Hints:
- It contains 40 helices and twelve strands.
- The protein starts with 25 loop residues before the first helix and ends in a 7-residue tail after the last helix.
Amino acid sequence: MHDSKSTQDTGTGxxxxxxxxxxxxxxxxRRIISLHRGFTYQNLYAVGCLLRLREAxxxxxxxxxxxxxxxxxPDRHLYLQVKTRQGNLTWGAIKGSVExxxxxxxxxxxxxRTGTPRLIVVTNTTPGSELLQMTCRPDWPADVSLLxxxxxxxxxxxxxxxxxxxxxxxxxxxxxxxxxxxxxxxxQTLVWKLAARVQYASTGAHGQLFHTSELxxxxxxxxxxxxxxxxxxxVYRPHGDEPELTGKQRxxxxxxxxxxxxxxxxxxxxxxxxxxxxxxxxxxLPPAAVPGALAREIAARHxxxxxxxxxxxxxxxxxxxxxxxxxAHDDRVIAVVxxxxxxxxxxxxxxxxxxxxxxxxxxxxxPLPQQIPLAAQLGVAAESxxxxxxxTIATAFAAEECTLDYPTAQxxxxxxxxxxxxVLNSALLTRTVxxxxxxxxxxxxxxxxxxxxxxxxxxLDQTFEQLPEHARTVAALLLIAEVPLSGGELQQLxxxxxxxxxxxxxxxxxxxxxxxxxxxxxxxHTALHDALRPLAAQAAEDLPAETARDVAHSLSHLxxxxxxxxxxxxxxxxxxxxxxxxxxxxxxSLESFYQGGFPRELRAVMADLADDTDRDTVSRLEAHxxxxxxxxxEDDWDTCARHVHAMEELAATGxxxxxxxxxxxxTRQLALYGRANDIDALNAAFETALAAVPAPSPYGRALRYxxxxxxxxxxxxxxxxxxxxxxxDDYRHHxxxxxxxxxxxxxxxxxAFESSETPDDYKRLxxxxxxxxxxxxxxxxxxxxxxxxxxxxxxxxxxxxxAVDLGQDAVETLMQVGETRAAxxxxxxxxxxxxxxxxxxxxxxxxxSQRAVVLAYLGDIAAARAELDALDHxxxxxxxxxxxxxxxxxxxxxxxxxxxxxx
Length: 903
């Protein structure tokens, strides 16, 4: 296709195209020009169709879906393929379109699409002789036709004629645009703006769809959009607990980093706002011009022509006050969103707010130090958007065809603070750089080994580099700490890093807080904002090695003795980092050690200890036991067996193995024999081990529980349940507990536990009850209320993982007796908080699928389905997948046949 003008006759001065140096690769230039001519021709032809839609009585026009352009009419569906060629059009150029149309025709024939389909190939050139002969044959499809210059379609006479070049199609569109009954735009300006809209729709925007009913508004939008909200994404994903646009106070100050989704949130929330909303971007104008521009924008939207004409001719704050006076006179309340308000001096923002005393104002901007006095002046507190939840993160990653389970989604949330742009960019990098492996992406970013910078780093790097050195050092210390610190605790770390003056540390915290880089808590503790972690990690890497060691030791001493999970988990990792492995090894012998979501990094430390031949035999056996216990908890029986066999070898060769270690080994062996369904070996090993310990004794009770557990693994559920119940009675008598303690007031049981000399035995009693419950479930018989004391005992003894497990059994018990609301309360008020507080993300999926069923029994089918649908975006284990499918069947059954009250 050739344009009508050559490059030689378009230049008028000495600096013309003809005097530019020739391109090095003329063939490439020719291909690029041809490509863009083709797309422009196609877009202009679509514009021509838009301008004739009303004449055709068409309903919609679509672009870049099954064909270049599609038009739906009351009785037919046109598929337009636009082809531009230098020479004649050949059969090879349209063969794929004709063959693909056969599939489209089949969709219409099957009734899955409405209207009679037609394929029309629009071309700028004459078809070749061979192709013309093919169209005359009897076997040529009657619903496939060609349209070329001078040869209009015989039936679809409304279609724009094909033109030989871009000038021709542009001229025709311009003539049509001149007939549009709107005089605010020059016809060719309207054509090019419509072409831009078509091109934008071709990227997937607006569903790639234009409705005839929207044409009048479409022509006007090109004027208004310059002063309207930026186009929101086609799929909007809300923040967690997303606020409305306007709050209880007249002024809302919302701050956040670039990429936090402030503008997109405001655009989406505006649709639900009860007041008419005006959007204004302060970044587009110099500060002095903002008041007048805002005044005229509000007047154009909310005042009649005569009222607007009577406004003062001057620009500035007086004009804005005059606009407000007119609105107030008519008792009209409006909402105004001022974006990028951080570009304005604080005093200017203050004047804007007070010039509109009845308007509901939402101010959007970056967190900067000057926002602190501004918030004080306005009498409001700066807010920030909550960010995306793990469910939304999973949805975003699924859209990029990336896999992640719930724990990995939480890692992404921690790395990105859930800020939308950072999450979307992370998903993109995961797909393009890490082949969809989200865990690998998280590992690379946390280890600072990633080679492609994230949007998060690019956006925040300038902010971080503007900080003084002492503020960057304090940010690094907060990153190393990982947990919120009090002022005194932070000063201890600062002193270890060489910042000995508290005033310097306090100033650094203020500088970080002023830029929104920290999070403050009501107890006075401070933590680093999650979004800054990747950059602060670089600052931490830059600390001298000796300083880093001093900080780690100082933090270890500071956290020692704290029982909160976050601090305890961080302390455990520090034990490994600072070489205090003996202390860490001692922790593995505690009953509660395996019940919290402690760091997986500890496993590598345990593996090193187990393989260290320089360590004593007992320590190595303890390390193998810890690894076997972790593997058993994850149903990794092969790994568990490997570590048990290593324990056997150590026990056989070591002369320092005592009764405790031998009983520990025996309990692991009994589990393996049960898993292997070797009842003879299970019985023999139990009798041998039991004969070697005094009776009654803690060792004997431990062996009896392991034996009962082995029976359970071997499928001997009846025997396992009986053994567990008998052992539970023995524990109860040993602890001098009555049934009233276990099934009565929780306060009484807690007092007995806290005053006990053997508190771990309470956890072991809970284990017996738990094994009894599981055996009953396998047998399909009732286990009564036993799950409740087991859950309570687990909670008292900090056995969080088991507490959640038995808590779900307690939920089932409540459901069976018709206490559905109490079951939901147990999930929401106890089990979910435990999972969140003690880092047990792997339990979330099971809890949520169970919660869906409870909601369905309460009649909230929509919420139940939403709960299960959210889980579809996570990578789940086979057992979790089966559980979700089962719960979904239950929900759908209840949707079809709602339960009767009391059932």
